[in-house]
Amino acid sequence: MSDPLLSRVLYIDLSRKKFWVEDRKDLFEKYLGGTGVAVKLLEEEVSNKTDPLGPDNAIIFAVGPFTAMYPMASKTVALFKSPLTGNFGESHAGGRTAIAIRMAGYGAIVVKGASETPVYLAIHGDKVYFRDASALWGVRSTYTIGRVLREREPGSGLRTIIRIGRAGEKLVRYACAIAESYRHFGRLGLGAVMGSKKLKAIVISGRRRINVKDPHKYRQVYNEIFNKAVKSPAMRKYHDIGTPVNIRALNKIGALPTRNLKSTRFEYADNISGERIAELRLARRTACSHCPVACIHIAVIREQYPHEPYFYTTRYVSYDYEPIYALGSMLGIHDIDGLLRLLEAVEVQGLDAMSTGVILAWATEALEKKIISVNDTLVELKWGNWQNYIKAVKYIVEQPNEFYRTLALGVEEASKKYGGSEFALAFGGNEMPGYHAGAATHIGYLIGARHSHLDNAGYSYDQKLIGKEYPTPEKVIDDLVNEESWRQILSSLVVCFFARGIYKPELVAKALEPLGYNYTVEEIIDLGKKMYSEKYRLKIELGFDITKARIPERILETPTPHGHISREFIEKALKYFNEKINKMIKEYT
Asked: Which end of the chain is more exposed for a tag (fewer CB within 10 A), N or C?
């Protein structure tokens, strides 16, 4: 490891308003960085008795050896105990977060304790300031918080600004943390954890140089990765249309969850497709730091002033496939402007778009089935009525009655209280991502350490199998576990998963060498399995039990491109997984 500062961990105690730095070479030399190191740091801080919204919970931000060194190594990993699932929580964000942390001179930041009054952290190199955030607490919009902090703190052009909205302050269990206005630590409730600590925001900046062991070879590898990035058809897709290209593609094969997964084709899919939004509302593209792809797509919202025919407000909001699925097809919304305004409302409040959309879809169907009434929802929730969904988003945060206080806990808890668990689309307590492509998709949600489609790409696995013979449950598990094990390497380096087709094992080993690491391809792959086993061991210690996994009935009722999913198939897969993961934990930890 040629950069000694990568192993520096900044510890911050909000309760005592203290900070200190420790050299954790013991972890960075063994687990690279990112997720690999963060899992061990989190393990040191939390247990199965830790209250996710208590001061004993910790937030770990971590970067890796590829951060600031290679293209598309642009993510920061955040680990914490999730208030949504009560278990292991992991979320990734881009923007400037990773570069800022490494330029400040750290490989990881550990935030623990809780402030008695609202604060924000200003981390500028070796200096850490605990700033009073009382005036920012309760401010309506996350955009406003960002504008205020940009004016108050130095480091323009180099810094990251991570903040929460009213949802985090109100401890909505799926509140997110927003970075640079357009990127998010979206899933599993980091915003609520920050809110419980009275931590409104974190500003990080720094200026430093990073030396490499072999500059000549580094430049060769860098150019190889860069050329693959700018010439790859997959990367071109992310630049041109972005992930919303999936809307038409998934709708065509019958894998686009629609109206709470009552169907998998949306008759208005073209209206909200990535191509249509780009044609009518795309304002610009932007990129995370040190990424040549520029996959972030920003849409414009143009709204006329009342009684002023020639005057308009112009606002901007980012959009990706998952928010469009969750707030579009899942809610039957086909009006582009309505969809963008609903997405903006979610952003303003600081909510996870995926969880919000799935929860509102459940509430809409529950109202249809008269499980709940308008006395509960306060507005009529009806497919396509984006105006009322915007009102419901505000109610989730304001929590004016018992129904919305329950809705703020997630769809799993809401369905336990009111019924309708058969169409409550949550996996391990986390709301469903935007794919219904086959059995591997949902098995992937169930066994993934984060219960996310990005854990093991079960959705992609299913799409590649269309028209082919479907494998056995055991084969599915073996393949998904291998994929998730490899992704531990990518998230420890830390590489954007969009670049997984470029950062193959051979290239990773080659790219590590000029940075002072010596790994064979086999050693890298084996390290991924060890990291995966360590992560799952912690997950189990925190209380997760795959034998108690709830399989939503709706996923069995609605056909996929492979036909109906068999409960027996999923149960066989989960039984085999339970045996396999326990063997891996014994072997690797």
From this structure: C
**Residue 438's domain spans which residues?**
431-588
pLDDT at 234 over 80: no
Structure tokens at 55: 């001061």
Q: How far is CA 559 from the centre of its chain?
A: 27
CA–CA–CA angle 103, 107, 110 (5° rounding) = 115
Whether the ω angle into residue 494 lies within 30 degrees of 0, i.e. cis, is yes
Please tell me which residue, 380 or 305, carries the higher pLDDT value. Answer: 380
- Give CA–CA dist 141/234, Å, rounded: 35
Q: Reading across the β-sheet that carries 119-124, which strands appear in turn? A: 127-132, 119-124, 199-205, 160-163, 177-179, 183-185
Residues 251 and 180 in one domain: no
- When pLDDT is cut at 50, 70 and 90, the band that residue 236 belongs to is confident
- Is the peptide bond prior to 193 cis by the omega test (within 30 degrees of 0)? no
CB neighbourhood size of 98 (10 A):
31
Helix %, strand %, coil % for the chain, to 5? 45, 15, 35
**Pairwise CA distance, residues 199 & 146, whole Å:** 14
**Cα angle vertex 107, ends 106, 111, to 5°?**
80
Provide the CATH number for the domain around residue 458: 1.10.599.10
Same domain, 351 and 299: yes
Are residues 127 and 75 part of one domain?
Answer: yes
Assess if residue 140 is contained within a domain. Answer: yes
Residue 300 lies in a domain: yes
Predicted pLDDT of residue 191: 98
C-beta atoms surrounding 472 within 10 Å: 12
Alpha-carbon dihedral 514, 519, 520, 521, rounded to 10 degrees: -90
Q: Is residue 507 part of a domain?
A: yes
Residue 513's pLDDT band, with cuts at 50, 70 and 90, is: very high
Residues 171 and 298 in one domain: no
**Domains in the chain: how many in total?**
3
Q: What are 553-567's pLDDT values in tens digits?
A: 999 999 999 999 999
Amino acid (1-letter code) at residue 179? A
Same domain, 173 and 289: no
